[in-house]
Specification:
Number of domains: 1
Number of strands: 2
Order of helices and strands: HHHHHHHEEHHHHHHHHHHHH
CATH architecture: Up-down Bundle
Strand content: under 5%
Radius of gyration: 22 Å
Number of helices: 19
CATH superfamily: Amino acid/polyamine transporter I
Distance between the termini: 22 Å
CATH class: Mainly Alpha
Shape: globular
Structural class: mainly alpha
């Protein structure tokens, strides 16, 4: 259970080219764009309003700063790993090299929670904004096909829908982008670059035009008094808000999953991870400040499209439709990167024998793990169509925080076990930085509702059962150590 893969072995596997391997096509700009593409999305345009209304009030800006603070520690650790081990798989691969197979499986299974449900969360928000633009032009979809069975939805005209059959628009966007990913990594990156430029422009327009319409009264009180519950306002509410919006920062983690498709990963990975984190933190804090200044935080309760609600106050009605369309484009790039990240994690786990070979099948023409993309087309669609967005968001946040904790632990282990290994990027102030990353992430996990912990526990129990039923018996490294494989498997 604790067999490790050596860095030399990982680098050898990553160096293989030809049929059945991933193709190196991504530049440093592509990597930063992937990070920004995943970071600026539902966390900014939807979860900001939810966290402000339920947890932090106008102090949601402090929540974003706290979340970014935690990300900075974890991001520095990710950057060192990604430059040393430029292999697909992200935290799963790093854990395999430092803590062994069982912990690698745990983190790999956790990344399913992070990426797959992250894509589902954003697709539900994408559906909300699509309905808003369709409603404005008099196009009404059947109510039973635009909301999950356990969710309440208020349309732009005031119509309230209390549960439906399935969220069909959310399923549609997941299916469409899964097919785009099968077509090719370079094509997906080009599409993502365009969408990122578009949505960053929208965020800048929102901040610039909205700033002059801020009502200072909306900031009073800036930190609302706690209601008696840990997660409702006050400083504890701010920490809960940070844990909720932490979902928004998982983009730099997604960058590391594309390491095996980067042209110069030793240089590009640290730039992509840390660069996207810095850019997005600045935009998040400014955006949240303007949003809560335009509209009182209480008015965001139950609002699935708070950015559009806030921008309506500015009076720039002619830009309202453009804003919504651009937000849809922004959400699209997030879903694209999340689906891409998840497929690369499963691809790597299958290459190691912990999952069926089906998931490591690479398309002969497109050089993409197409069967994995098809599997998650179905898996993510089920969650997107049937599960409420707030539940999905909490599950993703706790899964992300758990992954960050293990990456921070891994850096400390690697510094002890391989102190002289080549490190193109070195995490500064070790062990202070990883220890702080662990403490802040654990604190944010503690701040999440108890239901999130229960769901994480159930998810992990299912994952452990699968590992002992299949992964442990079929592990390639285990077969190699037991003498069942006499040469390095290059599949």
């Amino acid at each position: 259970m604790f067999h490790k893969k050596s860095i030399e072995q990982l680098l050898f596997e990553a160096s293989q080219t030809g049929e059945g391997t991933l193709k190196r096509t991504l530049t440093s700009f592509n990597l930063i764009s992937l990070g920004v593409g995943a970071i600026i999305g539902a966390g900014l345009f939807s979860l900001t309003g939810i966290a402000a209304a339920e947890n932090a009030g106008p102090a949601i800006t402090i929540s974003f700063a706290l979340a970014a603070f935690a990300c900075a520690f974890a991001g520095l650790c990710y950057a060192e790993f990604a430059s040393m081990i430029p292999v697909a798989g992200s935290a799963y691969t790093y854990s395999y090299a430092t803590m062994g197979e069982f912990m690698a499986w745990i983190i790999g299974w956790d990344l399913v929670l992070e990426y797959a449900l992250g894509a589902a969360t954003v697709s539900v928000s994408w559906s909300r904004y699509l309905l808003e633009i369709l409603n404005k032009y008099g196009i009404d979809l059947p109510h039973s096909l635009i909301v999950s069975p356990w969710e309440k939805l208020t349309l732009g005209d005031g119509t309230v829908i209390q549960g439906g059959i399935i969220n069909l628009p959310a399923i549609f966007i997941v299916m469409l982008l899964s097919l785009v990913l099968i077509r090719g990594t370079q094509e997906s990156a080009t599409m993502n670059n365009f969408l990122v430029i578009l949505k960053v422009s929208v965020v800048l327009v929102f901040i610039t035009l909205g700033w002059s319409h801020i009502n200072p009264d909306n900031y009073t009180p800036y930190i609302p008094e706690n209601t008696g519950k840990f997660e409702n306002f006050g400083w504890t509410g701010i920490s809960t808000g940070a844990a909720v919006v932490f979902f928004a920062f998982i983009g730099f983690d997604a960058v590391s999953t594309a390491a095996q498709e980067a042209k110069n990963p030793q240089k590009g990975m640290p730039i992509g991870i840390l660069g996207s984190l810095v850019v997005c933190t600045i935009l998040y804090v400014l955006f949240a400040h303007v949003m809560t200044g335009l509209v009182n935080y209480k008015d965001f309760a139950g609002d699935a499209k708070p950015a559009a609600t806030a921008f309506a106050v500015t009076g720039y009605a002619f830009l309202q439709d453009a804003l919504i369309i651009a937000i849809l484009a922004g959400y699209t790039s997030v879903i694209l990167v999340m689906l891409m990240g998840q497929s690369r994690v499963f691809y790597t786990m299958a290459k190691d024998g912990l999952l069926p070979k089906f998931f490591s099948s690479v398309h002969k023409r497109f050089h993409t793990p197409w069967k994995t993309n098809l599997f998650f087309l179905v898996f993510v669609s089920l969650f997107a169509g049937l599960v409420p967005v707030s539940d999905l968001g909490h599950m993703v946040s706790i899964g992300t925080l758990f992954a960050f904790v293990l990456v921070c632990i891994g850096i400390m282990i690697l510094r002890k076990s391989l102190p002289n290994a080549v490190r193109p990027f070195r995490t500064p102030f070790v062990p202070f930085v990883p220890i702080m990353g662990i403490l802040v992430c654990v604190f944010l996990m503690y701040s999440l509702p108890s239901e999130s912990w229960i769901r994480l526990f159930v998810w992990m129990v299912i994952g452990i059962a699968i590992y002992f039923a299949y992964g442990r018996k079929n592990s390639k490294i285990r077969k190699l150590r037991d003498g069942k494989i006499v040469t390095t498997d290059r599949e």
